[in-house]
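Can't attach files on this board, so I'm pasting raw text. These are the components:
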Amino acid sequence: MAILKCMTEVDETLIKKAAELARLELSADETAEYAKSIGEILKHVDQLNQVSVDGVEPMIYGIDEPLRLRPDEVIPFPPGRDGEPKILESAPEVVHGGFKVPQILGS
Amino acid sequence: MIDPSTEFETVIGLEVHVQLATESKIFSTARARLEPGKSVADEVVNANTTPVDAGHPGTLPALNRKAVEYAIKTGLATSCRINEKSVFSRKQYFYPDLPKGYQISQYDQPLCEHGFLDLELGENGDRTKRVGITRIHMEEDAGKNVHLAGFSLVNLNRAGTPLVEVVSEPDMRTSEEAGAYLRKLYSIVTYLGVCDGNLQEGNFRCDANVSIRPKGATQFGTRVEIKNVNSFRFVEKAIEYEAERQRQVLLSGDRLVQETRLYDSQKNQTFSMRTKEEADDYRYFPDPDLPPLMIASDTIEKMRAELPELPDQKRDRFMNEFGLNRYDAGQITSSKAMAVFFESSVTAAGASHGKVIANLLAGETTRLLNEAGVEIAATAFQPRHFADLAKLISEKTISATAAKQIIGILHSAGSAVAADVNEIVEREGMKQVNDLSALEPIIDGIIAANPKQVEEFRAGKEKLLGFFVGQAMKATQGKANPAMLQELVSKKLKGE
Amino acid sequence: MKTIREIHDAFDAGTTSPLVLTKKYFDAIAQSRHNAFITVCESRALEQANRLTDELKSKHGGKVPRKAQPLFGIPLAIKDVLTIDGVRTTCASKMLENYVPPYTATAVKKLEDAGAITLGKLNMDEFAMGSSNENSAFGPVLHPTHLDRVPGGSSGGSGTAVAADLCVAALGTDTGGSIRLPASFCGVVGMKPTYGRISRYGQIAFASSLDQIGPMCRSVEDAALLYEVMAGVDPFDSTTANVPVNGAVTAPITKGLRVGVPREYFIDGIEPEVKAAIEGMIEKLKAEGAQIVPVSLPHTPYAVATYYIVAVSEASSNLSRFDGVRFGVRPKEAIEARSLSEFYKKVRANFGTEVKRRIILGTFALSSGYYDAYYRRAAQVRRLMRQDFEKAFEQVDVIVSAVSPSTAFKLGEKSKDPLRMYLTDIFTIPASLAGLPAMSVPVAEDAQGLSIGMQVIAPRFQENVLFRAGAAIERLAQVGVAS
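---
Top answer:
C-alpha cells for the assembled complex are below.
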C-alpha cells in the first residue's frame, strides 16, 4: 500500500484517536504538544522507509527458542492476612470480595 | 422496496468457546476446574486468583502443557490441520473483567485450521451435511462482572481458564443444522475428556452469527451476533427468531444494523445490547512474552493414534452390538456422560437388555433432560434404575408407559439417588395385569356393552379396535399389558 | 569504597558486620541530598542484618559462607521497578504511589536467598521511560558529585546510590541503555546481560522483548557476582533462555582479544573529551596485545527510530493494566465517574507526560492501518541490526564504543525536547535491540570531573567474554585515573 509509506500527517485528530483507544484524557494544550513532539519523532522514524526490508523476518521476540511448556500443576495463591484472598490486599475498593467499578451497563 | 415475495435464506456461523478441563489455568498455576461436587457459587470470590491472573505489574504468562494437548486433540477430532507453529497474540481492549487490558489469544497463526463436522439431519438422520471449521485457537477466559445497583463487581476466579475457540464456516442454513452442529461438537469434546461439558457452569458457550440474503445471492447480508445463549434448544430458537426479525426489517424497507444482540428465552426474542462504545480497534500483535508454540509432527501423530473412541464410532458400535436403531444410538452417544451411563446400565442388567435401556434413555429421559436443560450427571438417575426398569419390562411386570412414568417420578423426586424402582412400582400399584383370565371377562363385558361398535368393526371399520382397547384399558385402570390386551381384543372382536 | 570481596574480608576479620554496615548506610541515605531513594526499608533491612550478623557468629564460626551465599550480609538497593512482597513499589509514578506487591521478583529473591540485604527502592524515570531521571513523580535524582547535573536514566537512582556510597551495589534495568547510561554518567560499572539471562518475573514491564535486569556496582568482579546469582531459567518467565550459566569469569584478557571498533559509533557530535577517552583506552588495549579491528554496523543510524517504535508499542500494551481496578491509585474523580470510560481516564491521568507520550505513540504504531508501516517495519529493521552484529562478531570477540556522546548534562538541559533526549541513547540502543550483553566501565573523567564510560558489547550468551574484556579495561583505566 503506497500510501502507508509516505510521511504520516500527525494532526490532533490522530492524537485524539490514539488517546481515546488508550483511555487517556488530554487537555487542549497536551493534545497540541503531543501532536508536535510525536510529529517530530515520526518524522525521524520515517527514515526506516529508506531501508530495504524485502524478505526480512520481523524480530518480535528476544530469544530464539520455542515456547516452553509448564506441567498442569495446581499451586494456589495462599490467602493473605486474616485468611482473605491475598489478591484483594492491594485493591482500591472491595465490596463483597469483588473489585468494585462504576456501573458497566450504560457505559 | 424489496419484493414481498422474496425468498430468503439464513446464513449461520457459530463460534463456540470450550473451557478445557485442565487442573490449572492456561497461564497460571491457579485451579482451573471446580473441585468435584462443587459449583462456581461455592468458591470464595477472588480466592482462586494469582497475581498472574489479576494482571499484577511484573507478572508473566507460562503456558500449560495439558491445555495444548487438549487443544490439539480437539483439532484432530474435528479433522483440522494442526499447525506446527502457532503464535499467541494480544487482543487489546479495556474492560473490568480483562485484567491486563488485553486477552492473550491467537490471531493470524492459530493452532488448528480447516476442519469439518459431518452432521446427520432429518427425522432419521439420513440427510447429511458437512459444516466447515475455519479454525480452532487457544485463548484465556476473562473474569466475571456482577452488576449491582449503581456499580459492578469483578470476580477474577474464572480469569485465565483455558479456552479453545472453535469457529465454523458460515455453512449452516437452518436452526436445525446449527443445533446439530452444537450437539455434535459438544459430544466430541466431552468424549475426548477435554471439556467437562457442564453447560450451567459455562463450560461450553455459543455465539451465533446470523444473517439473511435472497435465495441464490452470493453476497452475505448484514451480520448480527447473538451472544451467550446457554442451551442448544435456545440457540435454535434464537436463530429462528432472529432470521424472521431480519426478514421483517428488510421487507419493511429498513436497513439492518451490524450489532450484538442477546436472547431472552422467556419472551423468545432477541434484543439489542445497550450500545457499547464503537468497536475498538483490537491492535493485535504477537505477544512478546510468549515465544512461538512449536509442535513436532510426531507428537501430533502420537496424539492422533491415542484418540479415544469418538461419538460416531461408538454409535455405530452400539447399533451393531445391541441392535439399536440409528436414532436411539445417536441419542445415547450424544454425550460421553450419557454413553457411560448407558454402558453402566447395560453392565448391571445384561447385554440382552441393551435395546430397551437405550430406548428409555433416548426417549423419555432425553426429553426430560432437554426440558430441564441439564445433563444426566446433574440428575439423580442411576444406572441401576434403568437396569431394573429393563428387567421389569422384559418380565412384563410393567408396561412401557409405566416405565416412562417411573422415570418422571425419579426425576421430579430430586435427589432420588437412593430411590428404588421396585419400591415405586409397589407404591404406585403399577404392576401390569398379564393374567388372561383376569382380562377376558373385562373385554367380554365391553364387547357386550357396545354392540353398535362391534357391528361397525365387523363391517370393516378397523380403527374402532382402538376404541375397544381404550375402554378395556380404562376398565383396568391402565394396568393391562397393552400388547396382550390389544391381541385379545382383536381376537375376540374377530370372533376367534 | 569497598567491593564485595573486601567487605567479606572485613566481616571475616571482624572489623565490621552486616548490622554495622547496614546502619552506616541508613545514616548515609538519611544525610544524602540526591533523592536516590523512594522507599527506605529500615525495619525489614535491620531484621535481615540482625539475622545475618547472628548467623555469621552462630552458624558459620565468624567466616562468611562465600560459596553458599555469595552476597552474605551485603547491603544492596533495588530499582523501584522490581517487586518485593509487602514493600511499596512505585515505578516512580503517581499511579503506583500506594502499590504494595503481593509477590517478589525472582531476581530479587535470588539475591536475598544469597544473603543480600535490601536497603530500599531506588528512584528512576517513571516506568523506566527516560534517559536522565528527570521524569520521576518523586522528583529528579541528582548526579552523585555534581548536584546540578543528571545521573542519567532511567536507573538514575541506582547509578547515584552506588557512586555516592549509599549502598554496596544496586540493581538497575536496561531496555535501551538505562543501566549503561547512568553507569557512564555516574562513574560505576553497569551491565546488561543477554536478553533471557535474568528472569523478568517481577520486573514491571516497559518493553517485553528488550527489558533486562542488571547489576550496577563498583567493580566488574562485583557485577559478575551479582549476575551469576541472578541468571538462570525461571519457569515463571517464558522468555528466559535455556542456555547454561557458566560461572562468571573475570580474569582480565587483552592479549589476542579481537576488539571491534564500529565506524558508525565514531560520528560527529561526540564531545571531544569523550572521544579522546575512548580512543585512548583503545590505544591502551592495543598496547596490551589486543587486536583492534575496524568493523561496520551499517544499520546503526536507524537505531533510535527502530527502538522508539518497537519499545513504545510493547510499552503501550504493557501499561494497559494500569486501570485502577485491582491495584494502584484510584483518585476521587475516578470514584465519582459516571461511566467506565470516564473512570479509566481519570485513573490514567496519573501517568506523567513522557509516559503518556509513549503510550500514544505506541498505540498509534499498533493500530489498524499503521501496524505494517510502523511496528512490522521497525521489527524488520531490528533483525537487520541484529544481523549487523552477527556479521561483525565473525571477526571480533567484543565491540567497544562510547556509552553516550556526552558526559552528564545539566538538569533541564534536554528535558524540553523529547527527540533530543532520545538521541542520547544512540550508542546503547543497538545492543538492546539485538539482545546482546553489554557493559559500561568507567575509563576517564572530563575536565569537569565528570565520568566517561566505555561500552563493551559481546556476542549473545558470552557474558564471560564481556566480563573478561571489561575487567581488562577496568584495570587499564585505573592506571592514571583517580577513581
